[in-house]
């Protein structure tokens, strides 16, 4: 059973293979994402993060949930040499780079606690699978071609590992020339990280992406993480252990 | 407890990496100092036109500069300005774009060489697709609204 809703500005898909899945459990998962959006969205003036940014609420008086997120953001900043930083140029806090993966992970925990063993949650291309697919095999996750959104350029096979992709057409404020250009093209357009769970895979993917071409080396240094980075030439650079995920039978 | 252990290992690994990188490669920007290469103009090859964007066939648009709506890319707002010359898009700029974390660069010259390959389409069946959809959807949305104004 699979359901998709558009929340937090992106499609969120939940598929549960276990036959005991009912409508109500999907509602619970989507309600959780709605709650997260209402609390952490910097676009919602009524959110708790907006209250902090507007100076109405002191961070020290914020909810436990908010304090946990802010502490994890600070920890991630330390772990990434400052590349993960939720402080915007205008001095506001924007923890969305961490909240998404963390929320997916929490939603997956919610399903596990209810006894579901085979499912995935996909929020805008960041994925937390669990168990096996409908064929009793590992989940097959395609990595989208950032230069041609209609095709996949890699398939990785996972059971419980999180798969997060960071990418954008935008580096700086002036990037994209449909007629091609003469600038050296070695910028990064997409970085996929496979990690022990989506929360960690996503926050390190976000930080590594901000490092540019060196981001793949950052992932290479992390034990338990593999990465696949694609530059504007369509050349991929692969961490040394990545290929263990590309074989369906391993 | 296990989490702290893992966190500790990660910190140590990254610090070791920074020391290694500092010793063997210069210049190295280890912090959020930014670099000209990360903020300056860059370009994508012609193949990078995202699927689903409105067709930009030559001669279909009025010359001028058109700015699209601000679209929510989740990580931040995104807005596209399309520059039309001779009826075709010659440039796309981003008056607003998401900046999550810091841009910057770390020199990779002295780090271990990793395997590279040219990306190629795969036809294998998949259950799920991983990709950075939110930026590209916001991009398409804002570009579409810019081009709607440019319709001849």
Topology:
The complex is a heterodimer of chains A (250) and B (152).
Chain A: E1 2-7, E2 10-16, H1 23-40, H2 48-53, H3 64-79, H4 96-113, E3 119-123, E4 126-130, E5 139-144, E6 152-158, E7 162-167, E8 188-195, H5 198-210, H6 215-221, E9 226-231, E10 235-238
Antiparallel strand pairs in A: 1-2, 2-3, 3-4, 5-6, 7-8, 8-9, 9-10
Chain B: H1 2-24, H2 36-39, E1 64-67, E2 71-72, E3 77-85, E4 88-96, E5 115-118, E6 128-130, H3 133-150
Antiparallel strand pairs in B: 1-3, 2-3, 3-4
Molecular structure report:
- The complex is a heterodimer of chains A (250) and B (152).
- Helix content of chain A is 31%, strand content 24%.
- Chain A has 250 residues and is α+β, with helices and mostly antiparallel strands.
- Chain A has two domains: 1-136, T-fold (Roll), CATH 3.10.520.10; 138-250, T-fold (Roll).
- Chain A has a four-stranded antiparallel β-sheet, covered by helices on one side.
- In chain A, a hairpin with a 2-residue loop joins strand 1 (2-7) and strand 2 (10-16).
- Chain B is of the alpha+beta class and 152 residues long.
- Among the domains of chain B are: 1-28; 59-100 and 133-152, no CATH class.
- In chain B, strands 1, 2, 3 and 4 form a four-stranded antiparallel β-sheet that branches.
- Classes of the chains: A alpha+beta (250), B alpha+beta (152).
- Chains A and B meet through strand 2, helix 3, helix 4, strand 4 and strand 5 of A and helix 1, helix 2, strand 4, strand 5 and strand 6 of B.
Work out the helix count of chain B.
3
Give the overall form of chain B. elongated
CATH class of the largest domain in chain A: Alpha Beta
Q: Quick one: overall form of chain A?
A: globular
Structural class of chain B: alpha+beta
Oligomeric category: heterodimer
Q: How would you classify the helix and strand content of chain A by structural class?
A: alpha+beta
CATH architecture of the largest domain in chain A: Roll
- Give the ordered list of helices and strands of chain B: HHEEEEEEH
Domains counted in the coordinates of chain A: how many?
A: 2
Distance between the termini of chain B: 64 Å
The largest sheet of chain B, given as strand count, sense and whether it forms a barrel, is: 4 strands, antiparallel
